[in-house]
Amino acid sequence: MSDTTGPRHTxxxxxLARFVERLRGDAPTATVELRPPRSELTRxxxxxxxxxxxxxxxxxxxxxxFLMLTDSAVxxxxxxxxxxxxxxxxxxxxxxxxIPFLTCLHPLDYCLRYGDRARARGVESLTVTGGDRVxxxxxxxxxxxxxxxxLRERAPELSLGGWVNLHRPIAEQIGxxxxxEYEADYYLTQVVSHHDLARVERWLxxxxxxxxxxxxxxxxxxxxxxxxxxxxxxxxxxxxxxEAVATAFEAxxxxxxxxxxxxxxxxxxxxxxxxLCNLAPRRAATQFDRIMSEVDALETGSG
Length: 303
What we know:
Blueprint: H1 18-23, E1 29-34, H2 43-61, E2 67-69, H3 81-88, E3 98-103, H4 108-120, E4 125-129, H5 144-154, E5 159-164, H6 170-178, E6 186-192, H7 198-209, E7 216-221, H8 228-234, H9 242-250, H10 255-268, E8 273-277, H11 284-300
C-alpha cells in the first residue's frame, strides 16, 4: 500500500471544513471524544445519558472545542450519533463543531446515506474507520479507506478523516496515510502517552520524510484512576503503560495533571492538536477546564 514517491494527498481548499482548517494551523486545539449510549440500555437509561451528553456538548462547544461522537466504540453497539445531533442539539450547537465517527460495521447503503444525511445537517467533517468488531456485525468493505473513496464520490463536500495506529509499525502506518488511496483530509491517531514518546517522535520524523501533507490530531486518554485492575482491563482495547500510570497515581498524580502532562509533552514535540478520550459526559466541561488549567500551569511553570 506504500508509495514513497513525492508529496502526497492534500486537503481540498474549496469549502475547507473548519475542523481541518484549525488542524492545519499552529494554534493548539483540544477536541473531546464522547460516546453515545449503548444500544442495549433501557429507554430511560439511554435518555438520561443523552441528556448528560447534550449538556457536555453544549458546555464544550461554549469553550470553542470540537466534539467527536463515536460509532460502536470498543466493539459495543451504540445509538446513532447523527440522530442525536439532529434530534437533541438542533439550533443549539453549530453542527460543524461535531465530527462523528462512521465505521464500516453497517450495510453499505446505510453508510452512503449517512454521508448524505451528515452533509444535509451541516456536518463538515466525518471520520471513517474500519471499526472494532461488534457482535454479529461484519464490515461492509474490508478497510475504511474503501468506504472513504465511495463517500468522496457521493459527498465531495465532506472532509473525511482516517485512522493511524502509532502502536503498529510506524513505516507501515505512514505508508497507509501517504498512499494515494488513503483518501483523507486529516488523520486521528490511537491514544499516545508521555510515558512512551518514542513512537510519536518516529511518526513525526517519518511523516516529514515521506511528505505527509494532511494534518492530524493525536489521541490522549484521561485515566480516571490508576488502579492496576482498571488499567489492565483498558489494555484489552488499546496499549496502556500500566506500571507507569499506576506509579504516577500512587505518587499523588491527579487525573487532570496526568492528562495535561501528555498534552504538554506532545506540544514540546511540535504536536499542537489533540483529542481527549474518556471524559465523563456529566462532568466533561469541568474536567476539560481542569485539564487545560493544568496545561497552562505546566507551560508557564506555575504548577
